[in-house]
Structures are given as structure tokens and as C-alpha cells.
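User: I'm curious whether this sequence folds into something compact or stays loose and floppy. Could you predict its structure so I can see for myself?
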Amino acid sequence: MSPVSPSRLALGAAVIALLAGAAGYGLGHLGRATHDPAAPSQPGRKVIYWYDPMVPAQHFDKPGKSPFMDMQLVPRYAGDAPDQAGVQIDPARLQSFGVRYATVERTSFADVLTAPGTLEFNQRDVAIVQARAAGFVQRVYARAPGDVIRAGAPVADLLVPSWGGAQAEYLAVRRTGDVSLEAAARQRLRLLGMTEGLINAVAKDGRPRTVITISSPIGGAIQTLDVRQGMTVNMGQTLAQISGLGTVWLTAAVPEAEAGSLRVGTPARVELAAFPGEAFSGRVSAILPAAQAESHTVQVRIELPNRNGRLHPGLYGTARLGGAARPGLVVPSEAVIRTGKRALVMLALPGGRFQPAEVQVGREAGDRTEVLAGLAEGQKIVASGQFLIDSEASLAGIQARPISAAPAASPGEPPKAQPSLYVTRGRVEAIKGDQITFSHEPVPAIGWPAMTMTFKLAPPTLAKGLKVGDRAAFGFEQKPEGPVVREIKPEGAQ
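Assistant: Here's the prediction. I'll summarize afterward.
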């Protein structure tokens, strides 16, 4: 073998180094293309932005690690941008979600709320037994606090020495036969505290009576008994206090958020733990003016008839208070997603698409919830499985439709037969032609406070039978020329 020249060795080394460098660059580039999360996984498609699947609403203009989670950002390609009109879900997945649908309805909706309470004595049915004159207690009948007595039952016998002389003088005057003097003497006995029955008894048998029996003016339970045999009593001193049992009060604690719909006279049905399966009917007799700051409740008194004395003060009960029914938009309560900051429902759009919509909810009764704003009558919503659909919409970056966006019919959806109405209650102040003036309650759906204003009637016959001073629930539509009343229901109407 002939020796290799140094120049040829140098050239060979340079070629090997060049090939090794090229191979290394190729491997390195291949490695970056394989492991770099920022590199498009679908060559040839344009990346619009990057996002974190857990926070899809936040977009980034370059790849990298998410600032929210320990994960790489995911690219969103052109043509895959989320459709803000809704998210589409495969029918097979919907079936696995167990999705059920419901329709937004306008129906009669009654104010019904439940409040706990305790039975108490009717504080308007109380009798105070007092001594009409100074004297001495000769006898106390077998009574004690808590006893139930009838009207006219004796409580104590009092010896009143001062009455003996006055009665003797009256009898002497009576024997004179002077009618005017006798009348004056009788009046003096009345002023001393004697009853008409006692005076007639003295006149009938001609014998003074200094021992009188103090009786209960009403039937009921003895609350206090401050008289003992042998004690001295003064004129006007209270001997006993008696509470009637013909009616009792249930003092119920109503949450302040629901107390605004209550009125004196509102019917109530009360269920007591002592009588399972039985309900007692009554009415709200008073709404106390001061709320309880600690519990954020308003105290409401419900008066209940106490037939046969079955209802005992101190018993615990639950009151169901129901007001007059008035029209409103309602959805199944299970369809409402409450996040703490807002309430959402899931709209079912044509083509198997879904969109979350923010709503303002009102009253709740049974399994139905009133919707004050955010929906229109006839719209289709998801009643069951909406939480899973909402998760899919969040992952796809779908934003909830705000309340301020007016409900519109989706493509292919039939037109609504009736526009969205705002419902409130008020007092009729004036009726003239096709106009009516109400002093109405607040309308939260459009931010109206309580005020007096004039509405147009469409048709004018809606006010037939109404007169100034009547109270009614009414629904009105906002038109460019002003609010138009579409329906009226007088309070108390069936």
C-alpha cells in the first residue's frame, strides 16, 4: 500500500466533519420538530391563536406554557374557531348525557313561600283582672298559672269594708222613695267601683254586701296569678292576667328577599309537627315593621282559629303563604344553572347546537322558576344534562349570551306568537280612553323603581271592570312609542 499524503488526509477529515455536522443538524431539527409543543401538529393549516383548554376564553398570540395551568398551550386552527352562536355536540354523546328539553312558557304563577314559626297566644285577646277597691283577700279559688278557665269563673273573694257604709246609705235613701236621690246614690256606688249586678242585688234584698267575688271576664289560660289568701290589695292592683284561646298566632320568619310580596290578609296553610298530615288554615294578620338583622327575616303573624283548644302556644310549625296568581314566564327549576354570581340556562338551537344564556330569575314555586329577563316565550331549553353541555361550551370558548341581548328567534324556529312581557303589580290611579295610570311596584328586569306612570292599553277593553283604587297584576311590552299593557288580572280574580 502506498503511503497517503498529508494533504489527502486533511481533505478526508474535512469531508467527514462536514457530513457529521450536517447529520447532527438534521437530527437536532428533527428532534425540535417532534417535541416542540409550539410546532403545528397539522402542517399546512394556519394557527389563529393558542389557548389553555381549561381557560378557553383567554387567547395567546404565540405558543408556550399556560400561565394558568402546568400544561402547554393548544393551537386553534383557521376553520375551527368556535361558533359564538353555540356549540355542536354529537347526538350519541347527547344521548349518553341523558338530555331532556323544556319550553319557556307563560302561565299563571302564584307567590308561594314556606316559612317556619312558633305558635303564640293572641296578644290582642288578653284580660287583666284588677281590684276595684282596696280590701283583703278572704279566699283564692283553686287556680294556678297555666290553668284553662271559662268566662265568669271565680278567681278570688275580696272583703271591701269601705263599701259597707256606702251601701247602707244607699238603702236608707231608697227607703225615702225619692227617685232622684236614689239615682244619685246609685251613681255614687258605681263610682266606688261596684258593678251594676252588685248594686241590684243590694237593692233587691236590702242587705249590704262587703265580700265580693272577682271573676274572669273571658275564657282562656291564666298567665299570671298575683293574689294569695290573706293579702291586702289596693284599688287598681292586678290580680291575674288571662289570655284567650279562641285564636292563636303563628309568628313566622320570612326571608327578607321574599317578604315584599306579602300583604295583610294573605292566606296561609300551617302544618304542625304535633298533627302530622293535617293542615290548618289562617291569614296574615300583621307584618311587623322591624326586620331581624341577625337572620335577615321579617316577622309575620298568622292568625289561626283554635277550635276545641287543640293548638297549644309553643308548638313549632311551617307556614305556606300563597298570594294571588299572576302571569309570568316560567322554566323548570332544574334547568337553571346557578353559579353564585349569575344564573344561566342552556338554549337548544336548531341543528343540534347549544348556547348558554344569562337570565334573571324571580319567584320559585314547586319545581318551576320565574324568569324576569333573558328569555322569550316559546324558546327551547335544556332541562336535564345542561351541566355537561355547559362544560362542553366552556371548553369550546363559547360565551354566555348576556341579558342585555334581546332574545331572538333562531333560524328555522317558528316566530313567537307573543312578545316578551314585563310583569308587575300596581294600583289603578286613573283610566281614560285607551290609557291607564298605575302606581306600580319595581320592575327589576328593566331597572324600573316603584313609580306612578301612564300606559297605553292594547286593546282598551283590558280595563273593563276596573276602577280607580283597584289593585291588579299586569304585563306590558316596551314599544318605541312607550309601554303598552297587553294583559291585566285584578287581584282576587280566579
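Summary: The helical segments are 6-35, 91-97, 162-176, 179-191, 196-205, 386-395. The longest strand covers residues 279-292.
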